[in-house]
């Protein structure tokens, strides 16, 4: 319900509380949290990335699951190796890594695509994708093979190592 230009959530049950709020103009994500006084508060988070900065925000429907493997079927990434970052908008490590990731994306936009998945985006089904991709912590960087298969990136997340990976795999 909307009241006085603020979003509110009415809880119907104390069992298995689920709350979903949308702000369609700003593409915000909401999270319901219990504070130390057992009161509920709603936190609103925006996606961290935008294609204007070279990083394409992806959702569940951009992926196919075949034979327990996850394939990216987004046309921007077709037949290109690249990166996909699984993140949560509230994560301080994700926010810290954002600058380097966008910088690389802008520097290599023509030769190496960069994507991101907000694992908190329940509306688009990204929470299911998080489970299927076995994302246990964020940020989690995945690589995209030429066939579109995504697999875990197993090196450090700094600019030089990522740049090395781009140059070797391009």
Largest beta-sheet details: 5 strands, mixed
The residue-averaged pLDDT reads 82
Radius of gyration over all CA atoms, rounded: 17 Å
**Distance separating the two termini:** 49 Å
Shape: globular
Tally of helical runs? 3
- Strand arrangement within the widest β-sheet reads 5-9-8-10-11
**Unreliable residue runs:** 1-16, 22-26
Secondary structure blueprint with pairings:
Elements: E1 2-3, E2 6-7, E3 28-34, E4 40-46, E5 55-58, E6 63-66, E7 69-72, E8 82-87, H1 92-107, E9 114-118, H2 126-132, E10 140-144, E11 150-152, H3 159-168
Parallel strand pairs: 5-9, 8-9
Antiparallel strand pairs: 1-2, 3-4, 6-7, 8-10, 10-11
Essential attributes:
170 residues, alpha+beta, five-stranded mixed sheet, two-stranded antiparallel sheet, 3 helices, 11 strands, 19% helix, 29% strand
Q: Could you explain how this protein is built, in words?
A:
The protein has 170 residues and is an alpha+beta fold. The chain is built from 3 helices and 11 strands, in the order ββββββββαβαββα. Strands 5-9-8-10-11 form a 5-stranded mixed beta sheet. The longest helix is centred in the middle third of the chain and has 16 residues, at 92-107. Mean pLDDT is 82; it is low at 1-16 and 22-26.
């Amino acid at each position: 319900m909307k009241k006085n230009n603020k979003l509110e959530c009415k809880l119907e049950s104390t069992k298995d509380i689920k709350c979903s709020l949308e702000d369609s103009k700003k593409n915000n994500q909401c999270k319901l949290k219990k504070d130390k006084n057992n009161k509920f508060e709603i936190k609103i988070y925006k996606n961290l990335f935008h294609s204007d900065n070279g990083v394409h925000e992806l959702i569940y429907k951009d992926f196919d699951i075949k034979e327990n493997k996850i394939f990216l079927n987004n046309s921007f990434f077709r037949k290109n190796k690249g990166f996909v970052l699984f993140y949560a908008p509230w994560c301080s490590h994700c926010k810290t890594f954002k600058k380097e990731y966008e910088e690389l994306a802008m520097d290599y936009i023509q030769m190496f695509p960069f994507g991101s998945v907000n694992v908190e985006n329940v509306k688009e089904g990204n929470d299911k994708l998080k489970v299927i991709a076995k994302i246990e912590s964020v940020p989690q960087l995945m690589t995209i093979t030429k066939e579109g298969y995504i697999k875990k990136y197993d090196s450090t997340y700094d600019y030089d190592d990522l740049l090395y990976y781009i140059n070797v795999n391009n």
